[in-house]
Amino acid sequence: MSGDRPSAQELEAASGATIGDVLAPGLKVLFCGINPGLWSGATGCHFARPGNRFWPVLHASSFTPRQLAPQEQSELLELGLGITNLVDRATSKAAELTDEELQAGAQALSEKVQRYQPQWVAVVGITAYRAAFGAKRATFGRQERTIGEAGVWVLPNPSGLNAHWSAGTLAAEFGQLRQAVMAGEECRCG
Asked: Where is the Uracil-DNA glycosylase-like domain positioned along the sequence (predicted)?
């Protein structure tokens, strides 16, 4: 890879690639993306595409003391935060995933949550959440569902393709979860 920008060939070769979770026991929040994009697959970093607003929004909503770069993703663990995905394989668009893959991803996520026991699971992408968990009427925010003892929160997808959400409105949504975490809002409902 030349610099921080994967070549067209590297992006093409990243189709189907997987990247490791940023995960540890007892996290405050485990952010769960839909699946890695090709840029993430090529770099091995979550939310790596420059147009993705995850990292700026994480900082703007006070989850991080400064804006981290995707290559600094392991620093999230020190803050009690982690990242995983519903589906491991990288694609150019989330629309390439099947409902069956998303449902299998929900099962795999449930197993990770049981093992690592975060306080909250924040699924980043409502359409994927609805398909994965069979929750056709789900809205953004705190869900009635829990995964094990972890509360579940649905956030908008920070992808640059999700243009009807500005960085400010994304930060406000992420900030609501941050307030719940800071307030120690009871999320262990099991």
From this structure: 19-186
102-107 contacts, C-beta under 8 A, 24 or more apart = 102/34, 102/128, 102/131, 102/132, 103/131, 103/132, 103/134, 105/35, 105/132, 106/132, 106/133
Place of tokens 């972890």: 150
Tell me, yes or no, if the pTM score tops 0.85.
Answer: yes
Contact 61, 11 (CB under 8 A): no
Q: Which domains does the chain have, with CATH numbers?
A: 8-182 (3.40.470.10)
| CB-based contact 139:107 (threshold 8 Å) | no
DSSP summary character for residue 69: P
Alpha-carbon distance of 16 to 180, in angstroms, equals 35
Strands (E), the chain: 29-33, 81-85, 120-124, 141-147, 150-155
| Chain CA centroid to CA 69, Å | 15
pLDDT value of residue 162: 75
Helices then strands, each counted (H, E), the chain? 6, 5
End-to-end distance of the chain based on CA atoms, in angstroms?
A: 46
Among 124, 113, 141, 144, which residue's Cα sits nearest to residue 26? Answer: 113
CB atoms inside a 10 Å sphere around CB 122: 23
Q: Which amino acid is it at 145?
A: R
Rounded CA gap, 4 and 22, in Å? 20
